[in-house]
Design goal:
oxidoreductase; Rossmann fold; KR_dom
Length: about 250
């Protein structure tokens, strides 16, 4: 069974703005005892600490800096829920001259960063009873968009890793949640040119509902729901089903 976030300790990467900030505030609203705001620059979380006092603890974590992830895990040994929200996006078409360099940049944060977070925090989650690992993927993980083709590729890869983590971490009773937002009203969404975008609060609410209900996939906004309506059958019959045979 999933669990209630009340009295739990949560860590959120990229917690200083956008979706990450909404997740942090939703966790506190639901009664989390403490939230680690994992950010690249500690000063970016000063307002959150000032507002919430000792319920928010800022820790340095940069997905591009493997040692910072290891150090953050050594600090947050009491964590019950890790939400890997941070990520990067660049507008890039696959045929542009620097597309490979852009893909390498996005893979480093969006895929290798996820793997580093999972590796660093899995022991703490295990020692605290299992808990949950939440990964912010995207609708772009199942539907590529040409104007940000490299981002779509990186999110498809992170979604694949998330599926594997779901099976691997099941052994230690860690619930894994894969979140697939569409256009969200954030700085990243604005940079991507989204004119109509949903509230980050929708994402935050959906995440903790999914933890409580022990659901793997989260499709939190209107565009995500539309994609899920077509994808749901495949997800239930293939992605969420254990398949014993090895791939060809």
């Amino acid at each position: 069974m999933g669990f209630d976030i009340k009295d739990k300790v949560v860590l959120v990467t990229g917690a200083n703005r956008g979706i990450g900030k909404a997740i942090l505030e939703e966790a506190l609203t639901r009664g989390a005892s403490k939230v680690y705001a994992a950010v690249r620059r500690l000063e970016s979380a000063e307002d959150l600490v000032a507002e919430h006092g000792d319920k928010v603890v800022a820790v340095h974590l940069d997905l591009d800096d493997p040692q910072s992830i290891v150090d953050a895990a050594k600090t947050a040994t009491d964590v019950d829920v890790v939400v890997n929200n941070a990520g990067v996006l660049r507008l890039q078409k696959a045929l542009e001259s620097d597309a490979i360099e852009t893909l390498q940049f996005e893979m480093n944060a969006n895929v290798y960063g996820l793997m580093r977070v999972a590796q660093a925090f899995a022991p703490a989650l295990k020692s605290n009873g299992g808990g949950a690992l939440v990964q912010l993927n995207s609708v772009a993980s199942v539907k590529a968009f040409p104007n940000f083709s490299t981002y779509s590729a990186s999110k498809a890869a992170s979604y694949s890793i998330t599926q594997s983590l779901r099976e691997s971490l099941k052994e230690q009773n860690t619930q894994v949640v894969s979140v697939h937002p569409g256009p969200i009203d954030t700085d990243m969404g604005s940079d991507a040119g989204f004119d109509e975008a949903a509230s980050p609060q929708l994402v935050a609410t959906s995440i903790f509902d999914a933890i409580a209900e022990e659901r793997f996939h989260v499709w939190p906004d209107p565009m995500a729901e539309q994609i899920n309506s077509a994808y749901q059958s495949f997800a239930e019959q293939v992605v969420e089903t254990s398949m014993e045979e090895s791939p060809a």
